Amino acid sequence: MKIIPFGTSSGRPTLNRHVSSLAVVGEGEWWLFDCGEAAQIQLMRAGLSAHKLAGIFITHLHGDHFNGLAGLLSTMSLDQRQRPLTLVGPPGIGEYLNLLKRLRTIHISYPLELREFSGRDFREIAEQKVFESTHHEVVARPLDHRIFTLGYRLTERPKPGRFDLERAQALGIPAGPLYSKLQAGEDVTLPDGRVIASSEVVGPPRPGRSLAYCLDTRPCANGVSLAREVDCLVHEATFTDEHAAESDQYGHSTASQAAAIASQAGAKLLLITHFSSRYPDYRPLLAEARRHFPETRAAEDLLELAL
Amino acid sequence: MKIIPFGTSSGRPTLNRHVSSLAVVGEGEWWLFDCGEAAQIQLMRAGLSAHKLAGIFITHLHGDHFNGLAGLLSTMSLDQRQRPLTLVGPPGIGEYLNLLKRLRTIHISYPLELREFSGRDFREIAEQKVFESTHHEVVARPLDHRIFTLGYRLTERPKPGRFDLERAQALGIPAGPLYSKLQAGEDVTLPDGRVIASSEVVGPPRPGRSLAYCLDTRPCANGVSLAREVDCLVHEATFTDEHAAESDQYGHSTASQAAAIASQAGAKLLLITHFSSRYPDYRPLLAEARRHFPETRAAEDLLELAL
Asked: A6 partner at 20 to 30 Å CA-CA among A276, B102, B133, B136?
């Protein structure tokens, strides 16, 4: 699994950073978290195929997280996309798409499954599954921004344990269907009457990789929940502590607040992003986060990060 | 006056061409025709200041001409824009902006004068003035596309004739207020009683430069009217003649049709743009147009063209 930030600036693009959008690339499919302006250009630059895009997860409707959606959706129609696409987002996204269809601004010719949340869903259900594919699932929780905002966690399902071929041969298990049953977790009886437990030849299930995406938000408990022991927490770090009051006022986090969330959650890696354009150099933000959480990296547009 | 195309691809961006948007730069102010995705990034790359942007003229609401508007409008608020902005566009643009304000996708903190046209305006008024500043005006006419589309003509007002200082001195006219009166077109009486006509020392008014912007459209009479004797006609040329049937079906023009419009209108220069992404090389389009109208150039993203 790898992460490719498409845009890492907050509010407005700069000459070096586009606005928020981040690709997570798995085997045979990938997902987009937020879809700021020019996301469809960045995906070409990253060498990704839009045909393999399986889901788009919008955190909130502020334009810097959202204005690239209309163009990307239409371009996939021009590209003759056939594959269904899941689109998850906050209240209003359906009304927006309906108006753009009526105005003929967008044209969508493939199956689009829209999952739009209302605030009410979240008073009733603290965490909600919003996407499922063969090997992955995504859950959402509301965060704490100026407007209704969703945070997401993508989890790869646990993979079966490794099959110990040498041990199976040493036990004299005949190759063939019995191997498959053991790999699938079943105990089997050999032709000579011995019973072999699956656990004798199959290792423990291997946990899947996981990623949490928390922007835009003040530091909050749901951020910690989403990031619990993830391989990578992508968290906004719009400001340094020097501007903590402004950060709180606008519903954002400072770099050290992002680091505190990563630390509380036991995340393995923190990727900070969504930098205010007042920081032409990300190093003060990175240094501040690393004081609290050494395993921090600063996002750069199109810089690939393998998990 | 100079022209800077921000995007020259039709429908979808490519790695070399953004979607439609074109800046026209005058003295102290500039104007944007269409506002496709990433226009706000291209304006930074072109070194233009958004504070000097005086008017945005949208032809129609297809996303490739329009999806960059929301981001640009909000970024100007973040940049503390104070100057009023004129926004001209087809029916629906006000409803779109209202929804985006309600969803908090955009935030506009400066005076925005929206001029939205209904089809009805155009049954009553063939040509309508949509913008006026000290030195320029813009008129609009409907074109012939799949949806309601406006073409535009920007005209610089005629400049006063040149004052012939040598001739004035030879005539013994005392420097000072009399010069101003003559320059302003008044005849004056000298202290010695001689009457001097303004035309004796001031040349004929110099015509202002002009530009027509016609996309997206089939070739049509209103395109010719807008382009009448302009210094530069910017006209779409989505296809070559080989695809004339498809071009007509989708409400577009071929390169030779664009050239025919330029020729009928007596334009001085034709700039073709809005190339289908099926043409990785613009040269067949340019060659086709030049067969009918030799003074043709092919637009490139960010290539400046002085008028």
From this structure: B102
**Angle formed by the axes of helices A283-292 and A255-265, nearest 10°:** 30
The verdict on whether A281 is a catalytic residue reads no
Residues from chain A contacting residue B13 (CB–CB below 8 Å): 40-41, 44, 71, 75
The residues, any chain, with a CB within 8 Å of residue B12's CB and separated by 6 or more, are A40, A71, A74, A75, A78, A79, B19, B64, B277
User: Which domain, by its residues, includes A182?
Assistant: 165-200
**Distance set, CA A87 to CA A8, A59, A273, B193 (Å):** 21, 11, 23, 84
- The answer to whether ipTM exceeds 0.95 is no
B244 touches chain A (CB under 8 A): no
* H-helix or E-strand spanning residue B78: helix B69-78
Please report, for the domain that includes residue B155, its CATH number.
Answer: 3.60.15.10
State whether residue A19 sits within 8 Å of chain B by CB: yes
Spatial CA neighbour of B28 closest among B57, B49, B47, B56: B49
Q: How confident is the model over A106-118, as pLDDT tens digits?
A: 999 999 999 998 7
B96 in contact with A, Cβ within 8 Å: yes
Identify whether residues A147 and A296 lie together within a single domain. Answer: yes
User: What is the model's pLDDT at position A159?
Assistant: 85
Which tokens hold the place of A283?
A: 């190093």
Task: State whether B145 and B213 are in the same domain.
Answer: yes
Residues B18 and B142 in one domain: yes
Does A12 share its domain with A120? yes
- Residues B154 and B172 occupy one common structural domain: no
